[in-house]
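Project outcomes to date are best conveyed with an example. Our students and postdoctoral researchers have been running inverse folding experiments weekly, and each run begins with a structure described purely in tokens. The record below, which covers 93 residues, was selected by the lab manager from last quarter's runs and is presented without edits.
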């Protein structure tokens, strides 16, 4: 795997970005959500992995994907910044 999907590592990746850096898009299919950009793999609502291979998405990540997509339904341009992603995860930006 390119980047092992753990909450701790994902949060560290987000914290390493400028708070206004666009880390992904909501409602963007399998390749542009923040988790997809982090892992380098396709990410769905319950699975992730390289094309043709699927791993179960951890519960925290499933909840995060739902929050990202819900935010996208309320915005005209559904970009997600590092700060927004941290807030969605319940972390202090």
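After processing, the design step wrote out the following sequence:
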């Amino acid at each position: 795997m390119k980047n092992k999907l753990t909450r701790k590592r994902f949060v560290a990746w987000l914290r390493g970005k400028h708070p206004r850096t666009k880390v992904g898009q909501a409602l963007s299919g399998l390749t542009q959500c923040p988790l997809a950009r982090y892992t380098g793999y396709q990410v769905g609502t319950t699975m992730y992995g390289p094309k043709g291979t699927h791993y179960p998405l951890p519960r925290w990540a499933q909840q995060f994907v739902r929050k990202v997509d819900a935010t996208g339904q309320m915005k005209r341009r559904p970009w997600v910044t590092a700060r927004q992603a941290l807030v969605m995860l319940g972390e202090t930006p």
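Residues 7-88 form one domain. The CA atoms of residues 20 and 89 lie 16 Å apart. The training component of this project remains on track.
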